Amino acid sequence: MKMQIGARLFDGPGPFVMGIVNATPDSFSDGGLFLDAGAAIAQALRLADEGADLVDVGGESTRPGAAPVPDDEELGRVVPVIAALRARGFPLPISIDTRKAAVARAALDAGADLVNDVSGLADPSLARVVAEAGAPIVLMHSRGTPEDMQRRAVYGDVVQEVAAELEQALGRAAAAGIPRERTILDPGLGFAKTAEHNLVLLARLGELRALGRPILVGPSRKSFIGRIAGSAAPGDRLPGTLAAVTAAVVAGAELVRVHDVAAARQAALVAAAIRDATRASSAAPAPG
Ligand code: HH2
Fold this sequence. Notes:
By secondary structure, the protein is of the alpha/beta class. The chain has 9 helices and 10 strands. The protein has an 8-stranded parallel β-sheet with strand order 8-7-6-5-4-3-10-9.
């Protein structure tokens, strides 16, 4: 990928690691830990020390069944964190994880560099904010809202349908004036997906590369890992997360979104080295 995000040029195949800062009371794996602005700021600094390439700050849980959060409440959770990080010279690009135009605008004004939209631009006013700011955007695939998305997890071929719906999201972006070069695509593991859908998307992730944009994948601690592992609690899902990160990077993901940055970074680097060795050795001429 080649994309300017804030002060940093992301150039090359990666992998790049996005560290998660959930300033929420109810996120599925770390809800309440970083609701306090001071704790969220400390977490962002810790993830930077662990080797994150950017951090993603969110103020609304989008786990299945989560109720929406009013604009001012979400704003009040994320804007002080972003402003304080910028005031102290935080060196990394900051992404704002929101579906809401007002939150995105305030976060970009406070110093965020990228918008991470789990609704894939369901709201045209968010598209306008991103276009006006000239910011890059992550378009994640989902259907419906966190409240009803699991009822919509019905697909013929999940990979083809996700690809087609991501292409529609790219169309919404283009219509609002966001150029394709400023987009990153994400299949949205766990969003209107069953555990089986997540596995098929990971296994066939390479097919999404035909859309011609960098791919971000967010498997971190998600429930399909607990399901496969036989009920590991969210905090005990790091080994399974690393397996999913490895598979995603080998299949061509340029970015991974994770809670456990140091461990995921190591897994992603080794996975990328294996991916590159595969490409190099299959490109080499046969001996003799
Ligand atoms: N997953 C979550 C939130 N935002 N953004 C992208 N681009 N991709 C994802 O897979 C993704 C995302 C859900 O995880 P988390 O933030 O840990 O939980 P919660 O929504 O409960 O805050």
